[in-house]
Amino acid sequence: MAKANPFQFIQQVRSEVSKVVWPTRRETLLTTAMVFTMAFFAAIFFFLVDLVIRFGLEGVLAAASS
Q1: Quick count: other Cβ atoms within 10 Å of Cβ 61?
Q2: What's the predicted TM-score (pTM) here?
Q3: Which among 4, 37, 42, 55 could disulfide-bond with 8, CB atoms 3.0 to 4.6 Å apart, if both were Cys?
Q4: In the chain, what's the furthest Cα-to-Cα distance?
Q5: Is residue 14 a contact partner of residue 6, using CB atoms and an 8 Å limit?
Q6: Distance of CA 58 to CAs 1, 5, 50, 51, Å?
Q7: Residue 15: C-alpha distances to residues 8, 12, 21, 48, 51 (Å)
Q8: How many angstroms separate the CA atoms of 43 and 55, rounded?
Q9: Based on C-alpha coordinates, what's the Rg of the chain?
Q10: In the prediction, which pLDDT does 65 show?
């Protein structure tokens, strides 16, 4: 792969950056809200799964120690 001189490199970088479609403020806020919402629901789900497993394990250990 041929190396470009620094001036050509900067031109190529600017050309590629101009092709990027940047999200609008609304899209960014909506996506952020969706991420926080999904993280909240995932935390609740794993909390409940952990709770069920803990109660089940405590029940099994209590029955085994009796």
Answers
A1: 10
A2: 0.66
A3: 4
A4: 79
A5: no
A6: 63, 68, 12, 11
A7: 10, 5, 13, 50, 53
A8: 18
A9: 26
A10: 87
The pair of three-digit structure tokens given for residue 13, joined into one six-digit string: 């970088």
pLDDT, position 1: 63
| Whether pLDDT at 4 is above 80 | no
Residues in the chain: 66
Query: How distant is the alpha carbon of residue 26 from its chain centre?
Result: 19
CA distance between the termini of the chain: 73
pLDDT tens digit sequence for 5-31: 889 989 999 999 999 999 999 999 999
For the chain, helix, strand, coil in percent to 5 are 85, 0, 15
Q: Taking residues 42-61, what's their average pLDDT?
A: 97
